[in-house]
Write a structure and sequence with these properties.
Elements lengths: L2 E5 L4 H13 L3 E6 L19 E5 L5 H11 L3 E4 L6 H6 L2 H23 L3 H6 L1 E7 L24 H20 L3 E6 L1 E3 L8 H10 L4 E4 L5 E6 H14 L5 E4 L4 E3 H15 L14 E4 L14 H7 L7 H14 L1 H9 L1 H4 L11
Parallel strand pairs: 1-2, 1-4, 2-3, 4-5, 5-6, 6-10, 7-9, 8-12
Antiparallel strand pairs: 9-11
Helix pairs in contact: 1-8, 2-4, 4-6, 7-9, 9-11
Length: 359
């Protein structure tokens, strides 16, 4: 049994990691989250009464708060997921991305380094700092048939991906310079339950159910490799415990799909699962609206995940078809969660979210 700090644990991927750890391991989990707009403790309702789950509301940019958390909880593993992650938001306001993704990662690395340095030798040897990143740091594959590998040069296109690339470099520098036992993973586009509705798949589902336009950038021919979030959580847990120190592992779903086909697939599933449409709507696909493309929009991402398969035995369990059906069904069955997120009431109700919190 170990103690694991998960930064950004109230976010989409972070909450999936915590649910996985509580369900499938004996570890104690510390959820370290600032609770920005995308941090939603309702995503952790199923675990917030578990004695192995603890919540710490803290900013990763606050060195004194981090020192206290490391001192009090004495983690064996740090899984660093806290990040600003929406490309459009990074274009409109890059400052928060520089602060959280770069300065925050630096602050966390320093807190972890000083804590690790003072551990007994056997605990030093078993400590792990696992940094979770994105395939967007590699840039744009364009029309090539290639795949991102762990050795692909970095070529970020957006303020978001540039800030994540900076964080990746910091983690590797702290490993090489100070010996901090660190690992890095780079994942493809995640989707699944509890994703914040600004992202493509939940936005399309909820807009369609309300009869609103389904905005698609450009021609919708951008290609992404889609990874079901619970497959990703399982991979992250495996890397944190069994990955080789100093290594990078790419995690992808082997599901390359054009954005327009993602939207059409959602519409087809809604025809089957939610046939009662808003008044006056013929087919859900009638709502598709093409809008001006995003500045600097990368055309294609695709992950070569052969290393994590060969070294650690991980493969995704969900195809895009099975995962997308599960996702659409989840949003249909959890409209109350969606409505609270859309109204922002989940932020006002945080103080009543459960006894596991230490606000």
């Amino acid at each position: 049994m170990k103690t694991v700090i998960v930064t950004g644990g109230a976010g989409f991927i972070g909450s999936a990691v915590i649910r996985h750890l509580i369900r499938h391991t004996n570890h104690t989990v510390i959820n370290l989250d600032k609770l920005t707009y995308a941090g939603n403790l309702e995503s952790l309702r199923e675990v917030d009464h578990d004695p192995r789950y603890n919540f710490e509301q803290e900013d990763i940019c606050n060195p004194l708060g981090l020192q206290r958390i490391f001192r009090e909880h004495r983690p064996d593993i740090v899984m660093h997921l806290a990040a600003e992650s929406h490309v459009d938001r990074s274009i409109d306001g890059p400052t928060a991305f520089i602060q959280t993704n770069i300065i925050g990662t630096y602050s966390l690395l320093e807190a972890a380094r000083h804590y690790w340095r003072d551990l007994p030798r056997d605990e030093q040897a078993s400590f792990r700092f696992h940094h979770i990143s994105t395939d967007e740091v590699y840039g744009d594959l364009g029309d090539s048939a290639g795949l991102f590998t762990e050795s692909t040069p970095y070529a970020p296109s957006s303020p978001y991906s540039a800030s994540k690339a900076s964080a990746d470099h910091l983690v590797r520098a702290w490993h090489r310079t100070y010996g901090l036992p660190a690992l890095v993973t780079n994942c493809s586009n995640n989707y699944g339950p509890y994703q914040f509705p600004e992202k493509l798949i939940p936005l399309m589902i909820l807009n369609a159910l309300e009869g609103k336009p389904l905005p698609v950038y450009g021609k919708g021919d951008q290609v992404r490799d889609w990874l079901y979030v619970e497959d990703h959580a399982r991979a992250l847990s495996l890397v944190a415990e069994e990955g080789a120190v100093g290594e990078t592992y790419n995690i992808g779903g082997h599901n390359e799909v054009q954005n327009i086909d993602v939207v059409r697939g959602i519409c087809d599933l809604l025809e089957d699962l939610a046939p009662e449409k808003p008044e006056g709507l013929g087919e859900y696909q009638d709502l598709i609206t093409f809008v001006q493309d995003r500045p600097g929009h990368d055309r294609r991402y695709a992950i070569d995940a052969s290393k994590i398969e060969a070294d650690l035995g991980w493969v995704p369990e969900e195809s895009f078809e099975t995962g997308l059906r599960k996702t659409v069904r989840w949003y249909l069955e959890n409209r109350a969660w969606c409505e609270r997120v859309q109204r922002g009431s989940y932020r006002r109700e945080r103080l009543g979210a459960g006894p596991a919190q230490t606000l």
